Amino acid sequence: MPGVVSEIASVCKLRIGFAIMLSGLAGLAITPGATPETWQIVLFALAILLSSASAGAFNQLIERNLDARMKRTRNRPFVTGRFQANGYWFFVIALMLLISVAATSVAINPVAALYVFLGAFTYGVVYTVWLKRRTWLNIVIGGLSGSFAVLGGAAVVDPSLSMAPILLAVVLFLWTPPHFWSLAFVFADDYRQAGVPMLPAVFDQAVAARIIFVHTLALVLVSVLPFFYGLGWIYLAGALAGGLYFLKTSVDLVRSPSIDTARINFHASLIQLTLLLCACVLDVFIS
Question: CA-CA to 161 of 20 to 30 Å: which in 6, 31, 63, 177?
Answer without folding.
Answer: 177
